[in-house]
Sequence to fold (396 residues):
Amino acid sequence: MYCLFGTEDSRILLRGINQEKIVSEKIGYFDSDTFLKICQQIANLGIDTLFLDMRCANDDAIIKGVRIIRFHRSNTRIVLIAPNREPGDPTVSTLVSLGVYDIVSFDEEAVNEENVSEEIKNLLQRPPNYADAARWHFQMEEPVFQQRPARERKKRVQPPAPPMLEEFEVELPQTKPKIIERLVGTATIAVAGVTRRTGSTHLAVSLSTFLSRRNYEVACVELSEYPVFQFFQEDKPARIEAGFHREADFYPMADERLMHSVFSRRYQFIVLDLGQVTSENRAHAVQSELGRASVVFLTMGPSEWDFNFLIQTLDTFHSLGLGHSWNVVVNFADPDTFREIEQALTPAEREKLRVRFFRNPIQANPFQVHADQETIFEDCLATLIPKKDKRRFRLF
Fold:
């Protein structure tokens, strides 16, 4: 999957690559704050290659933005479009230090777009290599050292005595730091069923309700083959006309265009209800949407065939190259049955497959979030939301 972050000119330069692989485009010139927020959004996507045009923001913002992306996505390939830049450029040199090895430079006034497009196409056919970017990393000139006369080399200068440590002792005020935990950018959560009628929509609605009651801005997007959002639709509008608001914003039967609109509205959380994911005709779509997700929930029933569908689903995801941790939520299971399902895999196998099992309490109304469900959500989203402070009384 590709992402373009650049200008209209850079869009023209990418016409030689497969346009279907471009899942996101950010076109224009952006101020520093907007640029960094978009970089945070890109970091939450499972992007294989990012095309970054240096004309879309100032140099300082570009360095900070690439650092954000690298922190979250160390394996994302970044192709830098750097018109009018020359080896030794300090900004490009810093970006090379951050693992940006694919650099496309040209004279903007005398550019041959077809040649540049072909260069980018050829570049993608080989792996990134530091050797290709080394000339950008340093000024390729030998330093000149001047040797001092012999009499100066023999002359020794006694350094001044260092000040005593006590001279620097300062009594610091006893203050308690204030720590503020908050989410930066948009986090995407995918909810999928290993087969039909395992409760993926029910869980997606409960999760969206849970997050909205934590005062987060939440969108829940329906991508299931069997849509049901229309059955609990209300008249209150969402941010986008195609949806409705019921504690969170819900978007029924979303298509690709609506998806792009939702991701551009700066929600803090976007919950994707994928429905059944085992059908072969959905493999490519599932790979694309799961690639966006920071956290993935899989729903299953308590029967033996549901467990077989789970194993088939994990095999499919492995063949697609997806490396998520899988939070498997078992619905309609009594404690003994849930224990049998969980122990069907040894602890070593669960660790290798990156699978965790959770028993979901029976709750008919998805908008009434059970206390046990809150515990599941807090555990699975621990990296995305701050811990809830349960202390009600403080003595100091």
DSSP finds 14 helices and 13 strands in the chain. The CA atoms of residues 82 and 105 lie 5 Å apart.
